[in-house]
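Hey, sorry to bother you again with one of my protein questions. I've been staring at a protein lately and its backbone has me curious. I owe you a coffee for this, so here goes:
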Amino acid sequence: MGKAGTGFDRFEHRFAYIPLTVTPVQHMELQERLRNAIQLCDLEEEKKQLASSQSLPPEVSVDTLQFLLFLYIQQLNKVSLRTSLIGEEWPSPRNKSQSPDISVKSNCHNKNWNDYSHQAFVCDHLSDLLELLLDPEQLSASSHSTRSSLVCREAVVALSFLIEGTVSRAGKIYPLHELALWQPLHADSGFSKMSKTFSFFKLEAWLRAHLTVNPFGTSACLTSGKKLAWAHQVEGTTKRAKIACNTHVAPRMHRMVVMSQVHKQTLAKSSDTLVGAHVRIHRCNESFIYLLSPLRSVTIEKCRNSTFVLGPVETVLHLHSCDSVKVIAVCHRLSISSTTSCVFHILTPVRPLILSGNQSITFAPFHTHYPMLEDHMARTGLATVPNYWDNPLVICRESSDSNVFQLLPPCEFYVFIVPFEMEGDTTEIPGGLPPAYQKALSQREQKIHIWQKTVKEARLTKDQRKQFQLLVENKFYEWLVNTGHRQQLDSLVPPAVGSKQAAG
């Protein structure tokens, strides 16, 4: 029996994306049916018909035991007052550093990223996790397990939500319950063929003896993953940057790309390295990042003053603790927490979730395209209708959150141009623009035509045209500097011959 790995990353994303059994093709069928329903003004009736369709799951639900585990595991981020008093968790000048090294085992302060903290948490609370899954009659009067307590098969299946493993380190990955029920391991796991249950005592001892850190998690990716080099790297700004992937060794559902501490960079990639990967972006600032491939999930944490242009995200796009960030994406679901002054240009079939701690959030319609976009949307099961970009759901409304979000005024709306050449058939924004925003663009274009006509009819002399052109260029340069767009343009200058290009 090889060591089992804690499956926190798998757990996180599988829970966040509840319709686990719906394929991308079924998503497309579902959204096509919903589009027809909207046109017929009979959405509720159509949803009932969809629920009974043989081609789609009859219901979408979450297993009760798995949900209990999900709630319990939230304690991972709970700050202990006792440990705070001895300095283990209380914020200090050292851990307020703008660029902590998150790859260090014991000094990683981002618990969501630290697989060593995940393993330690499960080991420390393994008895509680198992007791949580016991049937009531297996508990003592004090609601604790005894040496004779038995764990049912359903409980071990639920625990597979958190833990999986292999028989040999290089072998196939199995859910925990499949390993526990494997004949050669019955004596170790405590499974009884007679009662069809597990001995609580033996199961706990077996798990504790073989549980190890997730070999495909964020920590492992940063420390031993394949390091990626990207084009347009600016000298002197990449010393702290960490960009790595495990796609060369990880199973399909565990593929990951991690980007941390990217500063004043423009990075762009569209390759097999990204396809179907879980992307983690951490502490990037003053950067422009283009990930133009179909992605499994994306998490953006503690980034500021940056723009992210993403390929279609099959499951969840989540932002946490970001400041002045712009995100442009097609995604199945968007959720945001503890963000300030962020702008989201999105296309999504599910209402965006606004969790706690957000301020000055702006939503706007998806406003860009690249040649492979529609092909990538089809691969991830995402369509253009329905689109709930303008109808977010505020989950945690605080007393001061009456204006936690706004819709971008049409007069401030501009389309976004992806500045890279690619092959593909998409030539316009999928689904078009809402009428009010399209009207604002048309009015702006009309003003440009009037301006051009006025200049032409002015019949300026050659010297006057020269002087006028210089004046316009100076004003444009001024505008570039004041808006911060100059950095974006400068970073698009092709790298010198011999510089590193994007790998993978």
Summary: Residues 1-21, 86-109, 232-236, 497-504 have pLDDT under 50 and may be disordered.
